[in-house]
From TrEMBL:
Residues 14-360 form the FAD-binding domain. This is Kynurenine 3-monooxygenase. The chain crosses the membrane at residues 13-30, 427-448. InterPro entries: FAD-bd, FAD/NAD-bd_sf, Kynurenine_monooxygenase. It comes from the Bacteria. The gene is kmo. Keywords: FAD, Flavoprotein, Membrane, Monooxygenase, NADP, Oxidoreductase, Pyridine nucleotide biosynthesis, Transmembrane, Transmembrane helix. Belongs to the aromatic-ring hydroxylase family. KMO subfamily. It comes from Planomonospora parontospora subsp. parontospora. Its EC number is 1.14.13.9. The keyword Transmembrane helix applies. Its cofactor is FAD.
Length: 462
């Protein structure tokens, strides 16, 4: 229901960033009785022609994100804009396809959604609630964390204005200005790491008859030596590919200087993908190379007036497909903490940081590890065997045994707990394998003894 009445008198929240986490949090805060203003330095994403705006065009939505969006009452409207991804489709250089389902249960699937569509929907819903106003073309340039005073600069005129709020939220992404300004003069660890690989987006358009050029309900992967393509499907039967390559060195973004060179590179590494991307040369030259950064920080809030959500406090490499999902989970947890401490916002922000930070730190590690796995291991027989053993055990013991990927992507179990449980399972699997091979060794020794006895006996006989 519209919240115009209570939003008129409630405390004031100023959110910096109208991206995915800023617009979802606006909705939660409005419901909690805040008068919310959201300040975004770009244009309204609903009017922007450049859909990707230099960021990924589409994203994989999984259980954590779904849970937060359900709580926000958005799911029903969202479904028609998503494409289910039931597993990974691995492409070999010769064009052979191997399908690896994400899980054993029907609900263990991911959903591909365009960032622009999702962002627009979040903004529209927040606006419809009343009590939320979005301002565009305003950049946060200063902050007094003690008084909750933001200074915003108009991106066209350069004029500045000040805004005072009871709660300032930094939802301004990996290079958050709010984080930097909030931590100025305070003790706070900040760990920022750039991956030596970057990414570029390319398109597999629909086939001339409007159908898909490759099976649509999957996340497509082309693993190769020092190169990787990941493709998410779209509702119009196109797929958006993300080409990951090293920035420097042989076969890198630096060494592939033209569209023609990119085509030659694809012919040798990804002949199958080359057939699917008719405008490869033009797109390769036109589209920018994105950087991948991982950010962790010890201070997610300053006192009772400033707090961070989303990439601003935990940007992760995109190889687990969890950045947005974890950001949506932040919004949900922050909202729950504010509900538990209605009279003590400082306690709410402290609890939020304590509940979330250990787990998003684990996610950062997992996302880095998954990069190595996607890069090197997808076709390794040992990995495939391991994945199959995991899924088989999960089928036999659906509650007792869950692969790590399942726990991260298809449950809302805290990331750290999922990792802990996966390590226990690994130890069990290792012990079982050792017992099996010890059993096999004992069996082999007994067979050798039997053989010796027989051959000894037959030698004596001859
Ligand atoms: P952002 O989306 O970065 O939004 C921040 C907003 O703040 C922007 O609108 C920006 O313009 C604004 N802003 C910045 N500075 C200021 C300022 N000073 N003043 C005012 N406004 C400002 N996640 C998934 O869950 N699944 C996936 O499949 C997935 N795939 C990805 C693929 C790639 C290639 C990449 C790079 C990321 C992927 N992610 C994925 C991660 C996901 O994109 C991010 O985690 C998510 O966008 C974080 O949302 P956010 O709102 O916190 O930050």
């Amino acid at each position: 229901p519209p919240l115009r009445e209570n939003a008129r008198s409630g405390p004031r929240a100023a959110i910096v960033g109208a991206g995915l986490s800023g617009s979802l949090l606006a909705l939660f805060l409005a419901r909690r009785g805040f008068r919310v203003e959201v300040y975004e330095h770009r244009d309204d994403p609903r009017l922007s022609k450049d859909e990707g705006d230099g960021r990924s065009i589409n994203l994989g939505l999984s259980a954590r994100g779904i849970r937060a969006l359900r709580r926000a009452g958005l799911l029903e409207e969202l479904w028609p804009h998503t494409v289910p991804m039931r597993g990974r489709m691995i492409h070999s250089p010769s064009g052979e396809l191997t399908f690896q389902p994400y899980g054993t249960a029907d609900h263990e699937i991911l959903y591909s959604i365009r960032r622009g569509v999702l962002n627009a929907l979040l903004i529209e819903h927040a606006e419809a609630l009343g009590g939320v106003t979005f301002f565009y073309g305003l950049r946060c340039v200063d902050l007094d964390a003690d008084t909750g005073t933001l200074t915003l600069s108009d991106t066209i005129s350069g004029e500045t204005r000040r805004v005072e709020a009871d709660l300032v939220v930094g939802a301004d992404g990996a290079f958050s200005a709010v984080r930097r300004l909030m931590q100025r003069g305070r003790s706070a660890d900040l760990h920022q790491e750039f991956l030596e690989w970057g990414y570029k987006e390319l398109t597999i358009p629909p086939a001339p008859d409007g159908g898909p050029r490759t099976p649509i309900e999957a996340l497509h992967l082309w693993p190769a030596h020092r190169a990787l393509i990941v493709a998410h499907p779209n509702t119009d039967n196109s797929l958006t590919c993300t080409l990951f390559l090293p920035h420097e060195g042989g076969s890198s973004f630096a060494s592939l200087g033209s569209g023609a060179e990119a085509e030659r590179f694809f012919r040798s590494r990804f002949p199958d993908a080359l057939r699917l991307i008719p405008d490869l040369a033009e797109e390769f030259e036109a589209n920018p190379v994105g950087r991948l950064v991982s950010v962790r920080t010890s201070a997610w809030h300053a006192g009772e007036r400033v707090v961070l959500v989303g990439d601003a406090c935990h940007a992760v490499y995109p190889f687990y497909g969890q950045g947005m999902n974890a950001s949506f989970e932040d919004c949900l947890v922050l909202d729950e903490c504010l509900a538990r401490h209605p009279a003590d916002r400082g306690a709410a922000l402290r609890e939020y940081q304590d509940l979330r930070r250990p787990h998003t730190d684990v996610l950062a590690e997992l996302s880095k590890e998954n990069f190595l796995e996607l890069r090197d291991g997808l076709r390794s027989p040992v990995r495939l065997l391991r994945a199959r053993a995991d899924l088989t055990l999960n089928r036999i013991f659906p509650r007792g045994w869950q692969p790590l990927y399942t726990m991260i992507s298809h449950t809302s179990m805290p990331y750290g707990e999922a990792l802990h449980r996966a390590r226990r399972q690994n130890a069990l699997l290792g012990a079982a394998a050792a017992a099996l091979s010890a059993g096999a060794a004992l069996g082999a020794a007994a067979a050798v003894r039997r053989l010796r006895r027989r051959t000894g006996a037959s030698a004596r006989r001859t």
